[in-house]
Amino acid sequence: MQEVYLIGASGHAKVIAEILSEEKKLIKGIFEKNEAIESMWDFKVNPQPDAGAWPRDGEYIIAVGSNRIRKHVAETFREELSFCKAIHPKATISNRASIGDGTVVMAGVTVNTEVSIGKHVIVNTNCSIDHECFISDYVHLSPNVAVAGDVHVGEGSHIGIGACVVQGIRIGKWCIIGAGAVIIRNVPDYAVVVGNPGRIIKYNKEVI
Ligand SMILES: CC(C)(COP(=O)(O)OP(=O)(O)OC[C@H]1O[C@@H](n2cnc3c(N)ncnc32)[C@H](O)[C@@H]1OP(=O)(O)O)[C@@H](O)C(=O)NCCC(=O)NCCS
User: Fold this and answer.
1) Alpha-carbon dihedral of residues 204, 37, 108, 187, nearest 10 degrees?
2) Lining residues, ligand 1, CB within 6 Å
3) How many CB atoms lie within 10 A of CB 68?
4) DSSP string, 115-166
5) What is the pLDDT of residue 206?
6) Which residues, in sequence order, are CB contacts of 196 under 8 Å at separation 6+?
7) Kind and range of the H or E element at 170?
8) Ligand 1 atom 30: the closest Cα is on which residue?
């Protein structure tokens, strides 16, 4: 049985824990930076180890919703940790799609032919990703996001719940697309876009 450690003990981590259970994988342990969180269900939650002190007898998933924090943790402990995926058995994934390590795919997702999904991506509940899309590392596609064919999403971008993106669009890195937005034009790096049709309201300064 594959043994997995979770980094993070939030609601998002609970969703991933249930996926691992559906996949018949064993949760070997949970680590959390916030030491006030001591348990998750019946699991004891342990403080996050310092560099060099992580257990080596399992693979890891960074179960943290923040794209920026997932990147920070993945890069900080890159040499030390080996990452795996969690893919819900009720996700439909083309044999011609590729999915990177550390990525999680929730229930009801459809990933169509020749889609490439990077590392440490969140593909949240009921997303639809159509043919030949390229989803970069540390992206989060929120629940019910619909991405048409040949769309590229840059590193770390967050697409809000229920947003849709028409075919052929290029979304830059570290963008935020608001809940329910309709994206019909390319989006530059760091842009925060809302509405139908999507319009830029500001830039994501947190990561610039
Ligand atoms: C886009 C978003 C990040 C903006 O948040 P913010 O930086 O706090 O911005 P504000 O709430 O101050 O809103 C700024 C303006 O944009 C508008 N706006 C914000 N979000 C909007 C949205 N999703 N659709 C349409 N307009 C929106 C606000 O009404 C406000 O307009 P005003 O200046 O005319 O009053 C946020 O509203 C959002 O949609 N986040 C997505 C959350 C999500 O999907 N989470 C899923 C987790 S799984």
Assistant:
1) 0
2) 124, 142-143, 160-161, 176, 178-180, 192, 194-195, 201
3) 15
4) -EE-TT-EE-TT-EE-TT-EE-TT-EE-TT-EE-TT-EE-TT-EEPTT-EE-
5) 78
6) 180, 181, 182
7) strand 170-171
8) 201
Which of 177, 192, 194 has the most ligand 1 atoms within 8 A of CB, as the residue to mutate? 194
Let me know: does 131 contact 151? Beta carbons within 8 Å: no
In the set 12, 88, 120, 131, the catalytic residue is 131
Is residue 12 annotated as part of the catalytic site, yes or no?
no
pLDDT digits 0-9 by tens, 95-143: 999 999 999 999 999 999 999 999 999 999 999 999 999 999 999 999 9
Contact 9, 32 (CB under 8 A): yes
Between CA 97 and CA 113 the distance in angstroms is 6
pLDDT in tens, 17-56: 999 999 999 999 999 999 999 999 999 999 999 999 999 9
Q: How many Å lie between the centroid of ligand 1 and the Cα of residue 194?
A: 7
pTM of the shown model: 0.98
Nearest Cα neighbor of 186 from 166, 176, 171, 164 is 171
- Let me know: does 106 contact 129? Beta carbons within 8 Å: no
